[in-house]
Write a structure and sequence with these properties.
The protein is α/β, with parallel strands linked by helices and 355 residues long. The protein has a 6-stranded parallel beta sheet with strand order 6-9-10-11-12-13. The chain has a 5-stranded parallel beta sheet with strand order 2-1-3-4-5, with helices on both faces. Helix 3 runs parallel beside helix 4, helix 7 packs parallel to helix 8 and helix 8 packs parallel to helix 9.
Length: 355
Amino acid sequence: MRVLLIAYDNDSYIHAFPLGLAYVASALRNQGHEVQVYNQDVYHYPESHLTEFLRHHPFDAVGVGMCGGYYQYQKLKKLRAAVPPDVEFWLGGHIVSPDPGYFRDNFHLVPFIGEYDYTENLDALPYPAWDLFPIDYYSLFRLPRTDNKDRCFPVLSGRGCPFRCNFCYRMYQGYRLRSPEKVGEEIKYLKNKYSINYIQFDDELFMISPERTDEMCDVLQPLEMKWWCNGRLNYAKPKVLKRMREAGCVFVNYGIECFDDTVLKNMNKNLTTKQIQEGIEATLKEGISPGFNMIWGNIGDTKETLRKSVDFLLKYDDHAQLRTIQAGNALSWLRFILQSYRDGITGGDGGFLRE
Protein backbone atom coordinates (compact mmCIF):
# COMPACT_ATOMS: atom_id res chain seq x y z
CA MET A 1 0.00 0.00 0.00
CA ARG A 2 1.19 3.52 -0.88
CA VAL A 3 0.45 5.94 1.97
CA LEU A 4 0.79 9.73 2.03
CA LEU A 5 1.01 11.28 5.49
CA ILE A 6 0.19 14.99 5.75
CA ALA A 7 2.04 17.29 8.11
CA TYR A 8 -0.68 19.92 8.03
CA ASP A 9 -0.08 23.67 8.16
CA ASN A 10 -1.22 25.24 11.44
CA ASP A 11 -0.05 28.68 10.29
CA SER A 12 3.14 28.75 12.34
CA TYR A 13 6.33 30.46 11.24
CA ILE A 14 8.37 27.40 12.28
CA HIS A 15 6.34 24.30 13.07
CA ALA A 16 7.09 21.81 15.81
CA PHE A 17 8.30 18.47 14.50
CA PRO A 18 5.27 16.11 14.08
CA LEU A 19 6.72 13.36 16.25
CA GLY A 20 3.56 11.23 16.28
CA LEU A 21 3.39 11.29 12.48
CA ALA A 22 7.03 10.22 12.29
CA TYR A 23 6.34 7.24 14.56
CA VAL A 24 3.33 6.27 12.43
CA ALA A 25 5.46 6.51 9.28
CA SER A 26 8.08 4.26 10.84
CA ALA A 27 5.47 1.68 11.92
CA LEU A 28 3.89 1.64 8.44
CA ARG A 29 7.24 1.09 6.76
CA ASN A 30 8.01 -1.76 9.14
CA GLN A 31 4.78 -3.38 7.95
CA GLY A 32 5.96 -3.21 4.36
CA HIS A 33 4.04 -0.14 3.17
CA GLU A 34 5.50 2.62 1.01
CA VAL A 35 5.29 5.92 2.87
CA GLN A 36 5.76 9.53 1.79
CA VAL A 37 5.27 12.73 3.79
CA TYR A 38 3.54 15.81 2.39
CA ASN A 39 4.97 18.86 4.17
CA GLN A 40 2.18 21.37 3.94
CA ASP A 41 3.48 22.84 7.22
CA VAL A 42 6.91 23.72 5.84
CA TYR A 43 5.80 25.21 2.53
CA HIS A 44 2.33 26.48 3.50
CA TYR A 45 0.83 24.83 0.45
CA PRO A 46 -2.85 25.60 -0.23
CA GLU A 47 -5.20 22.62 -0.42
CA SER A 48 -5.36 23.02 -4.21
CA HIS A 49 -1.67 22.05 -4.28
CA LEU A 50 -2.52 18.80 -2.47
CA THR A 51 -5.24 18.00 -5.00
CA GLU A 52 -2.83 18.59 -7.88
CA PHE A 53 -0.11 16.58 -6.15
CA LEU A 54 -2.44 13.60 -5.75
CA ARG A 55 -3.45 13.84 -9.41
CA HIS A 56 0.13 13.19 -10.45
CA HIS A 57 1.17 10.92 -7.58
CA PRO A 58 -1.36 8.15 -6.88
CA PHE A 59 -1.73 6.86 -3.31
CA ASP A 60 -3.98 4.23 -1.76
CA ALA A 61 -4.46 6.18 1.46
CA VAL A 62 -3.88 9.66 2.86
CA GLY A 63 -3.46 10.15 6.61
CA VAL A 64 -3.34 13.12 8.96
CA GLY A 65 -3.25 13.52 12.74
CA MET A 66 -4.61 16.60 14.51
CA CYS A 67 -5.12 18.01 17.96
CA GLY A 68 -8.56 19.33 18.87
CA GLY A 69 -9.43 22.91 18.03
CA TYR A 70 -11.62 25.16 15.90
CA TYR A 71 -8.77 25.89 13.51
CA GLN A 72 -7.98 22.20 13.13
CA TYR A 73 -11.64 21.34 12.47
CA GLN A 74 -11.85 23.88 9.66
CA LYS A 75 -8.49 22.71 8.31
CA LEU A 76 -9.71 19.13 8.32
CA LYS A 77 -12.72 20.06 6.19
CA LYS A 78 -10.44 21.67 3.61
CA LEU A 79 -8.01 18.75 3.55
CA ARG A 80 -10.79 16.20 3.24
CA ALA A 81 -12.31 18.09 0.30
CA ALA A 82 -8.90 18.21 -1.38
CA VAL A 83 -8.47 14.41 -1.38
CA PRO A 84 -10.31 12.46 -4.11
CA PRO A 85 -13.14 10.26 -2.79
CA ASP A 86 -11.54 7.10 -4.19
CA VAL A 87 -8.49 7.60 -1.91
CA GLU A 88 -8.93 6.28 1.62
CA PHE A 89 -8.62 9.07 4.19
CA TRP A 90 -7.23 8.31 7.66
CA LEU A 91 -7.63 10.60 10.68
CA GLY A 92 -5.93 10.25 14.04
CA GLY A 93 -5.03 12.43 17.00
CA HIS A 94 -6.94 14.15 19.80
CA ILE A 95 -9.49 15.64 17.44
CA VAL A 96 -11.05 12.29 16.55
CA SER A 97 -10.63 10.32 19.79
CA PRO A 98 -13.73 11.52 21.73
CA ASP A 99 -16.22 10.76 18.92
CA PRO A 100 -14.74 8.72 16.05
CA GLY A 101 -18.20 7.88 14.73
CA TYR A 102 -18.97 11.53 14.08
CA PHE A 103 -15.92 11.97 11.89
CA ARG A 104 -16.42 8.62 10.15
CA ASP A 105 -20.00 9.44 9.19
CA ASN A 106 -19.65 13.16 8.41
CA PHE A 107 -16.24 13.17 6.76
CA HIS A 108 -16.33 9.71 5.17
CA LEU A 109 -12.98 8.70 6.58
CA VAL A 110 -11.33 5.97 8.62
CA PRO A 111 -10.81 7.12 12.25
CA PHE A 112 -7.84 5.92 14.28
CA ILE A 113 -7.91 6.29 18.05
CA GLY A 114 -5.02 5.78 20.41
CA GLU A 115 -1.49 4.87 19.36
CA TYR A 116 -1.14 3.24 15.94
CA ASP A 117 2.15 1.70 17.06
CA TYR A 118 0.93 0.72 20.55
CA THR A 119 3.19 -1.66 22.44
CA GLU A 120 3.89 -2.26 26.12
CA ASN A 121 7.61 -2.43 25.36
CA LEU A 122 8.58 0.99 24.02
CA ASP A 123 12.17 -0.15 23.51
CA ALA A 124 10.87 -2.41 20.73
CA LEU A 125 9.67 0.57 18.68
CA PRO A 126 11.80 1.66 15.73
CA TYR A 127 13.09 5.20 15.67
CA PRO A 128 10.76 7.79 14.12
CA ALA A 129 11.19 8.06 10.34
CA TRP A 130 13.35 11.18 10.49
CA ASP A 131 14.65 10.63 6.96
CA LEU A 132 11.20 11.49 5.53
CA PHE A 133 11.24 14.98 7.06
CA PRO A 134 13.33 18.16 6.55
CA ILE A 135 15.12 18.10 9.90
CA ASP A 136 17.06 21.29 9.19
CA TYR A 137 13.72 23.14 9.12
CA TYR A 138 12.27 21.61 12.28
CA SER A 139 15.49 22.10 14.25
CA LEU A 140 14.90 25.86 13.97
CA PHE A 141 11.91 25.57 16.32
CA ARG A 142 12.67 27.80 19.31
CA LEU A 143 12.39 26.66 22.91
CA PRO A 144 12.80 28.47 26.25
CA ARG A 145 16.39 29.57 26.92
CA THR A 146 17.35 28.93 23.29
CA ASP A 147 20.48 30.49 21.82
CA ASN A 148 20.78 31.38 18.14
CA LYS A 149 23.15 28.47 17.57
CA ASP A 150 20.87 25.85 19.14
CA ARG A 151 19.32 23.11 17.02
CA CYS A 152 16.25 21.81 18.85
CA PHE A 153 14.39 18.54 18.51
CA PRO A 154 11.82 16.42 20.40
CA VAL A 155 12.33 12.98 21.92
CA LEU A 156 9.99 10.67 23.85
CA SER A 157 11.36 8.84 26.88
CA GLY A 158 7.95 7.49 27.88
CA ARG A 159 4.23 7.57 27.20
CA GLY A 160 1.37 8.13 29.59
CA CYS A 161 1.16 9.53 33.12
CA PRO A 162 0.62 7.91 36.56
CA PHE A 163 -1.64 10.75 37.76
CA ARG A 164 -5.39 11.10 37.17
CA CYS A 165 -6.23 14.80 37.00
CA ASN A 166 -9.93 15.00 36.17
CA PHE A 167 -9.55 17.57 33.37
CA CYS A 168 -7.14 15.34 31.42
CA TYR A 169 -8.33 13.03 28.64
CA ARG A 170 -6.27 9.97 27.73
CA MET A 171 -6.82 6.66 25.98
CA TYR A 172 -4.63 4.43 28.16
CA GLN A 173 -4.17 4.17 31.90
CA GLY A 174 -0.76 4.27 33.52
CA TYR A 175 2.52 4.90 31.77
CA ARG A 176 5.23 3.05 29.85
CA LEU A 177 8.90 3.95 29.90
CA ARG A 178 11.80 3.50 27.55
CA SER A 179 15.05 2.42 29.11
CA PRO A 180 17.38 5.36 29.78
CA GLU A 181 20.06 3.64 27.69
CA LYS A 182 17.78 3.51 24.62
CA VAL A 183 16.86 7.16 25.04
CA GLY A 184 20.53 8.05 25.32
CA GLU A 185 21.33 6.13 22.13
CA GLU A 186 18.62 8.02 20.24
CA ILE A 187 19.85 11.41 21.46
CA LYS A 188 23.42 10.51 20.55
CA TYR A 189 22.25 9.59 17.05
CA LEU A 190 20.40 12.89 16.66
CA LYS A 191 23.46 14.76 17.87
CA ASN A 192 25.83 13.02 15.44
CA LYS A 193 23.50 12.84 12.43
CA TYR A 194 21.69 16.20 12.63
CA SER A 195 23.84 18.25 15.03
CA ILE A 196 20.97 18.51 17.54
CA ASN A 197 22.11 20.04 20.82
CA TYR A 198 18.80 20.90 22.59
CA ILE A 199 16.28 18.15 23.38
CA GLN A 200 12.62 18.73 24.12
CA PHE A 201 11.21 15.76 26.03
CA ASP A 202 7.66 15.48 24.74
CA ASP A 203 6.55 12.99 27.42
CA GLU A 204 3.30 13.82 29.16
CA LEU A 205 5.36 13.67 32.34
CA PHE A 206 9.14 13.24 32.35
CA MET A 207 9.50 13.59 36.13
CA ILE A 208 7.35 10.60 37.14
CA SER A 209 9.57 9.99 40.20
CA PRO A 210 12.86 11.25 41.65
CA GLU A 211 14.43 7.85 40.95
CA ARG A 212 13.50 7.84 37.25
CA THR A 213 14.66 11.44 36.87
CA ASP A 214 18.01 10.58 38.41
CA GLU A 215 18.43 7.59 36.05
CA MET A 216 17.75 9.81 33.05
CA CYS A 217 20.23 12.41 34.29
CA ASP A 218 22.94 9.72 34.50
CA VAL A 219 22.50 9.14 30.77
CA LEU A 220 22.04 12.78 29.76
CA GLN A 221 24.95 14.41 31.56
CA PRO A 222 27.74 12.82 29.45
CA LEU A 223 25.93 13.88 26.24
CA GLU A 224 26.31 17.58 27.13
CA MET A 225 22.91 18.56 25.77
CA LYS A 226 20.52 21.32 26.77
CA TRP A 227 17.05 19.95 27.46
CA TRP A 228 13.63 20.67 28.86
CA CYS A 229 10.87 18.46 30.16
CA ASN A 230 7.41 18.33 31.74
CA GLY A 231 7.65 18.06 35.51
CA ARG A 232 5.71 17.68 38.76
CA LEU A 233 6.12 20.23 41.53
CA ASN A 234 5.75 17.65 44.30
CA TYR A 235 8.98 16.12 42.96
CA ALA A 236 10.72 19.47 42.43
CA LYS A 237 13.10 19.16 45.38
CA PRO A 238 16.52 20.87 45.59
CA LYS A 239 18.46 17.61 45.26
CA VAL A 240 16.52 16.51 42.17
CA LEU A 241 16.70 19.93 40.52
CA LYS A 242 20.44 20.23 41.17
CA ARG A 243 20.96 16.89 39.43
CA MET A 244 18.81 18.00 36.50
CA ARG A 245 20.71 21.27 36.10
CA GLU A 246 24.05 19.45 36.17
CA ALA A 247 22.74 17.15 33.41
CA GLY A 248 21.85 20.10 31.16
CA CYS A 249 18.23 20.93 32.05
CA VAL A 250 17.37 24.59 31.44
CA PHE A 251 13.56 24.55 31.63
CA VAL A 252 10.87 22.51 33.39
CA ASN A 253 7.27 22.88 32.24
CA TYR A 254 4.97 22.54 35.27
CA GLY A 255 1.24 21.87 35.39
CA ILE A 256 0.30 24.29 38.16
CA GLU A 257 -3.29 24.73 36.91
CA CYS A 258 -4.48 26.89 39.84
CA PHE A 259 -2.99 28.48 42.95
CA ASP A 260 -5.87 27.48 45.22
CA ASP A 261 -5.99 24.35 47.37
CA THR A 262 -9.74 23.77 47.03
CA VAL A 263 -9.65 23.88 43.24
CA LEU A 264 -6.53 21.70 43.15
CA LYS A 265 -8.34 19.11 45.27
CA ASN A 266 -11.39 19.28 43.01
CA MET A 267 -9.11 18.58 40.04
CA ASN A 268 -7.63 15.54 41.76
CA LYS A 269 -4.30 17.23 41.09
CA ASN A 270 -2.50 15.66 44.09
CA LEU A 271 -0.74 18.96 44.63
CA THR A 272 -0.94 21.79 47.17
CA THR A 273 -0.15 25.48 46.95
CA LYS A 274 2.66 24.91 49.47
CA GLN A 275 4.25 22.35 47.16
CA ILE A 276 3.77 24.66 44.18
CA GLN A 277 5.44 27.62 45.85
CA GLU A 278 8.32 25.61 47.28
CA GLY A 279 8.88 23.81 43.97
CA ILE A 280 8.91 27.00 41.89
CA GLU A 281 11.26 28.73 44.32
CA ALA A 282 13.61 25.73 44.30
CA THR A 283 13.56 25.61 40.49
CA LEU A 284 14.44 29.29 40.17
CA LYS A 285 17.13 29.03 42.84
CA GLU A 286 18.80 26.25 40.85
CA GLY A 287 18.89 28.45 37.74
CA ILE A 288 16.26 26.47 35.84
CA SER A 289 13.35 28.37 34.28
CA PRO A 290 9.87 27.12 35.24
CA GLY A 291 6.90 26.93 32.90
CA PHE A 292 3.65 28.17 34.44
CA ASN A 293 0.68 26.24 33.02
CA MET A 294 -2.53 27.63 34.53
CA ILE A 295 -6.16 27.13 33.60
CA TRP A 296 -9.39 28.69 34.81
CA GLY A 297 -12.97 27.43 34.70
CA ASN A 298 -12.72 24.25 36.77
CA ILE A 299 -15.05 23.24 39.59
CA GLY A 300 -14.76 25.83 42.36
CA ASP A 301 -13.02 28.50 40.30
CA THR A 302 -14.02 32.09 41.04
CA LYS A 303 -12.73 35.57 40.40
CA GLU A 304 -10.68 35.22 43.56
CA THR A 305 -9.00 31.95 42.49
CA LEU A 306 -8.13 33.55 39.17
CA ARG A 307 -6.63 36.53 40.97
CA LYS A 308 -4.51 34.21 43.13
CA SER A 309 -3.13 32.50 40.04
CA VAL A 310 -2.40 35.82 38.31
CA ASP A 311 -0.62 37.16 41.40
CA PHE A 312 1.48 34.00 41.66
CA LEU A 313 2.39 34.16 37.99
CA LEU A 314 3.40 37.81 38.18
CA LYS A 315 5.50 37.20 41.31
CA TYR A 316 7.55 34.25 40.05
CA ASP A 317 7.57 34.38 36.24
CA ASP A 318 11.15 34.81 34.95
CA HIS A 319 9.87 35.57 31.42
CA ALA A 320 11.43 32.54 29.76
CA GLN A 321 8.03 32.28 28.07
CA LEU A 322 5.11 34.57 27.32
CA ARG A 323 2.38 33.20 29.60
CA THR A 324 -1.40 33.59 29.66
CA ILE A 325 -4.09 31.74 31.59
CA GLN A 326 -6.20 29.30 29.60
CA ALA A 327 -9.96 29.44 30.07
CA GLY A 328 -11.36 25.99 30.69
CA ASN A 329 -14.89 26.98 29.73
CA ALA A 330 -15.45 29.63 27.05
CA LEU A 331 -18.94 30.59 28.23
CA SER A 332 -17.82 30.93 31.84
CA TRP A 333 -14.87 33.01 30.71
CA LEU A 334 -17.10 35.38 28.73
CA ARG A 335 -19.49 35.80 31.64
CA PHE A 336 -16.54 36.46 33.94
CA ILE A 337 -15.10 39.17 31.69
CA LEU A 338 -18.46 40.93 31.41
CA GLN A 339 -19.03 40.76 35.15
CA SER A 340 -15.48 41.94 35.81
CA TYR A 341 -16.06 45.09 33.80
CA ARG A 342 -19.28 45.70 35.72
CA ASP A 343 -17.42 45.21 39.00
CA GLY A 344 -14.55 47.44 37.91
CA ILE A 345 -11.73 44.95 38.53
CA THR A 346 -9.89 45.56 35.27
CA GLY A 347 -6.56 47.31 35.42
CA GLY A 348 -6.45 51.08 35.59
CA ASP A 349 -5.01 51.25 32.08
CA GLY A 350 -7.83 49.12 30.72
CA GLY A 351 -5.75 45.93 30.76
CA PHE A 352 -7.56 42.93 32.17
CA LEU A 353 -6.25 42.23 35.68
CA ARG A 354 -2.98 43.77 34.50
CA GLU A 355 -1.82 40.52 32.87
